[in-house]
Design a protein that fits this description.
The radius of gyration is 26 Å and the shape is globular. The longest helix is centred in the first third of the chain and has 29 residues. It has 3 domains: about 160 residues, Rossmann fold (3-Layer(aba) Sandwich), CATH 3.40.50.1980; about 190 residues, Rossmann fold; about 35 residues, no CATH class. Helix content is about 45%, strand content about 15%. It has about 450 residues and is of the alpha/beta class. The chain starts with a strand and ends in a 10-residue tail after the last helix.
Length: about 450
């Protein structure tokens, strides 16, 4: 394993870095072809198609009757989870829900001197589907994904939330996933994963009612299914492989290189396509971090994945100064940004593009992944230039409200009609003028 070494002198070096990182993601034509077949099968045969795919890839003896998890099974799950873990799930969920409660928006109204009442009406979506990846055949339950996707939907006031995740080989879901659902107050849970679960949630089957929006991470097949169904149903972020950029300066602490290496590996272990970048003006720190990175990677249970990510998409980048590092950060627009510097608050105002920013040397990325409160569903692949973390707003829609009276039409009707005629829309103009007593029919 050897993360590449890059010297960054300024913006002229950005094109080659950008060209390298852009190759990380994207479904090939064969993946899209297979996903289209799956979507068509679910559209045509519903539950039966979902059951057949589940039996083929997850649970050999699966049948359509096993799709929905009985409420009693959800209730019983908490008893199978150690009390300490149950308390931890409750605490993490409470933190995340409290953060998202602060994101809620109210409907509002205003009046104008000419008699109009204008406003915006905020309403939650009626029904959403949340996808929870299985992780190693269901043996590494991604409870944080369920918490992070459910919390903003719950805060938004969505009345119906359906959860889906691939079953284990014996047909069960992890008790941790079911316990997290119980903690969140969710009781509509389905044993189904992959592109067929996405299709079922989007299109509906006899067992699964169609949803208005889908959220939740997944593999390339899940991501491709969401992309192909966008428009038929709303979808959350089109997230790509995970990534972290760390802007660091030497503190004199001999443990710092190990901390930085550990933070890079926290993302590298996700996926062979994950990107982990260390940016620093301190060449000595860069050298020591490289040594620590090689040593720590060997000891990971997911060393093979982490090493593949670091070999292909990891880098230690030396800079002229922190200012250059901030410029590069804004060009990268990373999913996760750590400011491991002496005074991170002084730099925060200059960060324009990042999914989430972690301030200080004692605020590693997993704090946000699991516990602090902000959402860990974040824009990747540079899309933080125009996208935001998953939030309450993703689970709401807004309707404009307009109320005008006769006086308003008398005052402004001629202007509105003229604007309509500039666009060649005569019926629009007459719709206003007929209220002014003008007989424009046939003219």
């Amino acid at each position: 394993m050897a993360a590449r070494r890059i010297d960054y002198a300024g913006p002229d070096d950005w094109p080659r870095i950008n060209a390298w990182l852009k190759d990380r993601a994207g479904a090939d034509g064969e993946v899209e072809r297979r996903v289209r077949e799956i979507i068509d099968a679910v559209r045509e045969r519903g539950d039966q198609a979902v059951a057949e795919y589940t039996a083929r890839f997850d649970c050999p003896r699966f049948t359509a009757e096993m799709l929905r998890v009985p409420k009693a099974e959800i209730e019983a799950a908490a008893a199978a989870v150690p009390a300490r873990d149950l308390a931890l799930l409750k605490e993490a969920a409470a933190n995340v829900r409290a953060f998202h409660e602060r994101q809620k928006e109210n409907s509002w109204w205003t009046t104008t001197p000419d008699g109009a009442i204008l406003g915006q009406m905020v309403r939650p979506l009626d029904r959403v589907g949340l996808y929870v990846p299985g992780g190693r055949g269901g043996e590494t339950p991604l409870v944080s994904s369920l918490i992070m996707n459910a919390a903003p939907a719950i805060a938004a006031g969505v009345p119906e939330i359906a959860v889906a995740g691939p079953p284990r080989k014996d047909g069960t879901l992890s008790p941790y996933i079911l316990t997290a659902a119980k903690v969140l107050g969710l009781d509509e849970v389905y044993r189904m994963g992959g592109a067929w679960a996405v299709a079922a949630l989007a299109l509906g089957t006899d067992t699964v009612r169609a949803c208005d929006l889908l959220a939740g991470p997944g593999n390339i097949y899940v991501a491709t299914a969401k992309a192909l169904l966008r428009g038929r149903v709303g979808v959350d972020l089109a997230a790509g492989p995970s990534e972290i950029a760390i802007l660091a300066e030497d503190s004199g602490d001999p443990d710092l290189p190990a901390w930085l290496a550990a933070d890079m590996l926290s993302q590298a272990e996700h996926d062979p396509l994950a990107s982990a970048l260390l940016l620093t003006p301190d060449k000595s720190l860069a050298e020591r971090a490289a040594v620590a990175l090689a040593a720590r990677a060997k000891a990971l249970p997911r060393a093979e994945i982490a090493n593949a990510a670091l070999d292909n998409w990891g880098a230690i980048i030396t800079l002229p100064d922190l200012d250059s590092g901030l410029d590069l950060v804004n060009l990268l627009a990373p999913e996760h940004l750590e400011l491991a510097v002496d005074d991170p608050w002084s730099l925060l105002g200059r960060v324009r593009h990042a999914g989430a920013v972690f301030l200080g040397r004692h605020c590693p990325e997993p704090v946000g992944d699991y516990f602090a409160g902000p959402n860990h569903v974040l824009p990747t692949m540079g899309t933080a230039r125009f996208s935001s973390a998953l939030s309450v707003q993703d689970f709401c829609k807004k309707s404009s409200v307009i109320a005008t009276n006769r006086g308003y039409i008398e005052k402004h009707g001629a202007k509105i009609a003229r604007l309509a005629r500039i666009e060649g829309l005569e019926a629009h103009a007459r719709s206003v003028e007929v209220r002014l007593g003008k007989n424009t029919e046939g003219s």
